[in-house]
Design goal:
The chain is of the alpha/beta class. The chain is 34% helix and 26% strand. The chain has a 6-stranded mixed β-sheet, sandwiched between helices. Strands 2-1-4-5 form a 4-stranded antiparallel β-sheet, covered by helices on one side. The radius of gyration is 17 Å and the shape is globular. The structure holds adenosine-5'-diphosphate and magnesium ion. The site of magnesium ion (MG) has 4 residues, from α1.
Length: 231
Amino acid sequence: MLLQATSVTASYGDAQALFGIDVDILPGEVVALIGANGAGKSTFLKTLTGLLPALGGEIRFDGRRIDRMDAADIVKLGIAMVPEGRRLFPSLSVEENLLMGALSRRAGPWSLERVYGLFPILKERRGQPSTSLSGGQQQMVAIGRALMSNPRLLLCDEISLGLAPVVIREIYASLPALQEDGMSLLIVEQDVQLAMQVSSRVVCLQEGRVSLAGQSGKLTREQIGAAYFGV
Ligand SMILES: Nc1ncnc2c1ncn2[C@@H]1O[C@H](COP(=O)(O)OP(=O)(O)O)[C@@H](O)[C@H]1O
Ligand SMILES: [Mg+2]
């Protein structure tokens, strides 16, 4: 197991958001995390990256406890996140944004050249301010920045949000290339059909709990509808 999260709980002040989440991810596996708005998907990703401390349960990465570690140390072990809303540095160029992702890098195959190979348009735009790019191109910068740390596990939070279908397809088409080196992916995706297509397993959250988990090809619409909305 690359990632083993067991009974993870988390709160914002007095408001508990996660009530015991179990998620396992194998090396090279793509797992989709789905669920309605406010179900706790982003919160769970934040506990994995150390941005929000897990209150209870445990998180192991490659066998090692990480749930008491600093975010910077977790990146160095090989977990990187493409955050919801991209969070680029607006005053920096495309290339400078990418290089920010290399600050806590592990050794590995990812470099500026390799990111530019994956997203050639970014090489053309490398000197431009990140804010001058289209939404899809900005999402590519956010993904590239995460890759620059050479993650073993890449967390993608709603990378399709607000993008045109053709752009979404283009971005998702780049993901299989990441798995060639055995990278694992945990993908939060609102489009359930898309989530099923790109993943081998799916975990559905509802109000801070896992309401369904199973192989993507084997779950029925009814099962997913019930797990999603609690009907
Ligand atoms: N920064 C925050 N402060 C307080 N409550 C928050 C914060 N972020 C999220 N929440 C709450 O935590 C719950 C889970 O939110 P979130 O993880 O963002 O859901 P999702 O990503 O599945 O839409 C929601 O009830 C939300 O209102
Ligand atoms: Mg979210």
